[in-house]
Design a protein that fits this description.
The chain has 433 residues and is α+β, with helices and mostly antiparallel strands. It is 45% helix and 20% strand. It contains 14 helices and 15 strands. Strands 1, 2, 3, 4, 5, 6, 7 and 8 form an eight-stranded antiparallel beta sheet that branches. Strands 11-10-9-12-13 form a five-stranded mixed beta sheet, with helices on both faces. A two-stranded antiparallel ribbon has the order 14-15.
């Protein structure tokens, strides 16, 4: 089974070589762009939302949505947004400005339905956003500077002239290990293609997030062999198949325990901020709340790491056992559902699903989303659907046939059945009649 094109990202440390003269002038100019990147991202989302809001209002009054071409002269809204922002953000190289707009535009469009129906708020971007580089804005070289290097088209010509910057900045790419070296060499040789990249300033260093793609090979997976994946509270992940003996399990609670620790520390820091020392007071409100933001970042980073680890382990299990299809509950849009488990409304479940999908694609595994209704109440042995089957968070006991199992395992068994949505709908309707 062909896996298609795989996209990955590698992080590299950068060291300034030259090209823009004085390092401090160059860095000040890049910092300016980094601040403006956040503005562009947020304004893109705002303009997109405003347009959709006006269009929906027009439909309510006239029965017709606004025509994008007639109203703006552009075939697509992202083209109109670029035209609105290009004058105010003339410091960007034009290709990078467009690439930055596309980042926010695609994220907005992916969540548009949930945003417009009030199930989630529209995306917002915090400070210190990475600068987005179009793939044409980065050139790699090993010979020109005598070291692995990248020339970055970061600034517009007008900004370079204004700041006395001669050409584009060049950075040495520090190859810290064999994996980084191998990937860079494959990009240079053309075996891997580099795509849109990012640079970011973190902990007093510049970093390059190099996006690269390659054609994956083949692996012997059976698309008719389905692994059902349930995300639960007692078990963070429980995966099984009706066609296979055994199961894949990751115990839950790791994220919750860590979050509680950090949240308690944050509450303590919030209390301390009211009577903090002169060192923090002297720098204003930002300095007072800085430790609070730091704890938020720690929780987010921990969740991200955990989701990477969980998804990697799951996909390794699927490949090892030859599963060509993974089925999961469709959790999009459930954030506001009152009857859905509270931990799933706040945990980064959607991010975990995205990571599972991305890693599954790398291995050529098909991912199917099923409707979550009644998968936790249905007996995977006899098909009986009854809310009394779920005795508590951990135990499933069928009131009809007496089948007992871990509740998350039972749910994963249901989810692993092909066409389970239609099966449940038929069974539920039959029970009502």
């Amino acid at each position: 089974m062909s896996k298609g094109v795989v996209t990955k990202v590698m992080k590299y440390t950068l060291r300034y070589i030259g090209g823009c003269g004085d390092f401090h002038k160059m860095q000040e100019a890049v910092w300016k762009l980094q601040r403006q990147t956040r503005e562009v991202l947020n304004k893109t989302v705002q303009l997109a939302f405003d347009w959709d809001h006006r269009s929906r209002e027009a439909y309510r009054t006239s029965g017709e949505y606004l025509d994008i071409v007639k109203e703006t002269g552009y075939k697509r809204l992202d083209g109109y947004i670029y035209n609105r922002l290009k004058t105010d953000y003339a410091d960007f190289a034009s290709s990078n400005l467009n690439a930055t707009i596309q980042v926010a535009w695609k994220k907005y469009m992916a969540s548009k339905s949930d945003i417009l129906t009030g199930k989630m708020s529209f995306p917002s971007y915090k400070s210190n956003q990475p600068i987005v580089l179009h793939n044409s804005s980065i050139r790699f070289s090993t010979e020109k500077y005598g070291v692995p290097a990248a020339e970055l088209t970061v600034f517009s010509n007008a900004l370079k002239k204004e700041n006395g910057l001669s050409t584009n900045p060049a950075f040495e790419i520090l190859l810290m290990d064999g994996t980084q070296r191998s990937i860079f060499q494959r990009v240079i040789s053309g075996e891997y293609k580099h795509g849109q990249c990012q640079i970011n300033y973190e902990k007093r260093k510049w970093f390059l997030y190099l996006t690269y793609t390659f054609e994956a090979g083949k692996t012997p997976l059976d698309p008719d062999k389905i692994l059902g994946v349930d995300i639960g509270e007692t078990l963070a992940i429980c995966a099984s198949s009706t066609s296979e003996w055994g199961r894949f399990v990751i115990q839950g609670g790791e994220v919750t325990r860590y979050s509680k620790q950090i949240e308690e520390r944050r509450r303590s820091q919030q209390r301390q901020a009211t009577y903090c020392g002169e060192g923090r007071i002297g720098h204003g409100t930002k300095a007072r709340v800085a430790p609070i933001y730091a704890t938020e970042d720690r929780i987010a980073n921990f969740r991200d790491t955990i989701n990477h680890r969980y998804s990697k382990a799951l996909i390794e299990y699927a490949v090892k056992h030859g599963f060509g299809t993974i089925q999961m509950e469709d959790l999009s849009g459930i954030k506001g559902e009152k009857d859905f488990p509270k931990f799933l409304r706040h945990w980064t479940y959607y991010d975990l699903q995205n990571k599972i999908e991305a890693k599954a694609k790398e291995q050529g595994i098909n991912v199917v989303k099923v409707q979550p209704a009644y998968t936790s109440q249905r007996c995977s042995k006899c098909g009986c659907i009854d809310k009394e089957n779920r005795k508590n968070q951990e135990l499933f006991c069928c009131v009809k046939c007496g089948f007992k199992a871990n509740a998350d395992f039972n749910a994963s068994q249901n989810i692993s059945i092909k066409g389970i949505d239609k099966i449940i709908e038929k069974e539920y309707n039959a029970n009502i009649e």
